[in-house]
């Protein structure tokens, strides 16, 4: 984006991993990402759109109750992280940006001749951590355990699958990201995780347990993991990160290095790209770098606040699943759709549902408008 705005910029991207490697599987995004990106760089938007897969229905499957509900809505998209990064690296190279793979940057002094150093080095950002006393990062660790897996099962719709075990509920968010693969993010409460023995199982054994639990949605397809060198599975607890400030002299944070949002709202990638667009805009509009960085921090922080709130409440909804899971299926599914609401956590779920229904009925009457 910076190179498009002014081709005379001399830009290098340093990526510590080899070309074509990444973590995770596929990510979801909405039309909004494509239209925002289209305004910033139509070529990237077109390529991402062409290489994405899409769906417009959501299936909630509560196995023990033999309940499957289908909800139709606007199109959503999935793309493999590898494909997405490949497109962005290629586009950057085509525009004349140098891309150096397998080159880790541990401190900004390594690039001291740069006018501006942009740290897009993820949640564990080394550049940020060196100046933790300045950026003042705060991390809150989610209660639930999750694992990010792939599968060869290609889901037609976005699938929420809830399975009851003797140790509590475990659930999976499944969505396709290519013509032959889908992502499965599997999550459960800590007592379910240990009760099922997932805390001590190696990856192969753990996947066998999960394949059995989610056999109905997987249709015989395997789950695919990324074992660590010692064969252990990559179970994690989601970390929500915020920083008091986003820049220090000529060093500025973007994406997960600056902030993370729980995966259950599927927004982190769009927010990271949005940060980049805001930063480019601020630098382009104001030639004084410090005031441009201050503007980026101020305006972008405010722009992402509602997504951060939605992510916070969504993560809490899943951590409080027992509050909702025993409701009649129709209510449980409706409240799953309302999980971003700040009010829901404070109102008895049945009452929240009934008031919501009453309001819906009211708006369906002639003369009432939302
Ligand atoms: C389970 C799960 C599911 C998710 N699903 C979605 C989803 O559906 N949709 C969505 O939009 N978001 C999703 N996200 C969030 C999304 O993955 C992140 O928000 C996004 O990847 C942030 O992009 P980033 O470029 O800031 O950081 P990253 O993607 O983490 O990239 C950082 C890069 O910096 C490199 N790097 C790190 N340190 C150095 C260094 N010192 N020197 C050189 N290179 C370095 C890394 O190798 C990496 O390539 C999900 C996250 C999780 C955990």
From TrEMBL:
Source species: Nonomuraea zeae
Pfam families per the UniProt record, alphabetical: FAD_binding_3
Statement: the UniProt record of this protein carries the keyword Mitochondrion: no
Any one Gene Ontology molecular-function term assigned to this protein's record: monooxygenase activity
Keywords: Monooxygenase, NAD, Oxidoreductase
InterPro entries: FAD-bd, FAD/NAD-bd_sf, PheA/TfdB_FAD_monoxygenase
Protein's UniProt name: FAD-binding monooxygenase
Taxon lineage: Bacteria, Bacillati, Actinomycetota, Actinomycetes, Streptosporangiales
Domain of life: Bacteria
Stored SUPFAM superfamilies: FAD/NAD(P)-binding domain
The keyword Ubl conjugation is assigned to this record: no
Domain FAD-binding: from-to ranges: 96-307
């Amino acid at each position: 984006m910076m190179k498009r705005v002014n081709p005379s910029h001399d830009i290098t991207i340093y990526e510590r991993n080899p070309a074509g490697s990444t973590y995770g599987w596929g990510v979801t995004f909405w039309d909004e990402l494509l239209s925002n990106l289209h305004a910033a760089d139509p070529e990237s938007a077109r390529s991402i759109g062409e290489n994405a897969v899409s769906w417009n229905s959501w299936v909630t499957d509560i196995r023990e109750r033999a309940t499957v509900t289908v909800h139709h809505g606007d199109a959503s998209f999935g793309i493999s992280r590898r494909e997405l990064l490949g497109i962005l690296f290629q586009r950057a190279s085509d525009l004349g940006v140098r891309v150096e793979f397998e080159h880790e940057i541990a401190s900004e002094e390594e690039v001291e001749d740069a006018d501006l150093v942009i740290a897009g080095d993820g949640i564990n950002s080394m550049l940020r951590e060196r100046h933790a006393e300045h950026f003042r990062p705060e991390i809150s660790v989610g209660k639930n355990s999750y694992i990010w897996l792939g599968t060869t099962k290609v889901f037609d719709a976005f699938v929420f699958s809830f399975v009851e075990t003797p140790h509590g509920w475990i659930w999976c968010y499944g969505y396709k990201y290519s013509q032959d693969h889908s992502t499965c993010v599997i999550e459960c409460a800590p007592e379910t995780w240990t009760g099922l023995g997932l805390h001590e199982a190696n990856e192969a054994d753990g996947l066998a347990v999960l394949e059995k639990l989610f056999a109905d949605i997987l249709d015989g397809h395997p789950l695919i993991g990324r074992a660590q060198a010692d064969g252990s599975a990559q179970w994690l607890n989601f970390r929500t990160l915020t920083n008091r400030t986003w820049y220090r002299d000529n060093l500025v944070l973007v994406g997960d290095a600056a902030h993370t949002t729980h995966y259950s709202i599927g927004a982190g990638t769009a927010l990271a790209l949005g940060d980049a667009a805001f930063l480019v805009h601020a630098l382009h509009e104001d030639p004084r770098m410090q005031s441009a960085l201050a503007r980026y921090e101020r305006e972008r922080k405010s722009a992402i606040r509602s997504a951060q709130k939605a992510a916070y409440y969504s993560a809490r909804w899943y951590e409080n699943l027992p509050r909702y899971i025993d409701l009649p299926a129709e209510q449980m599914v409706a409240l799953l759709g309302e999980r971003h609401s700040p009010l829901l956590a404070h109102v008895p779920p049945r009452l929240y549902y009934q008031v919501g229904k009453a309001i819906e009925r009211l708006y369906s009457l002639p003369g009432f408008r939302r």
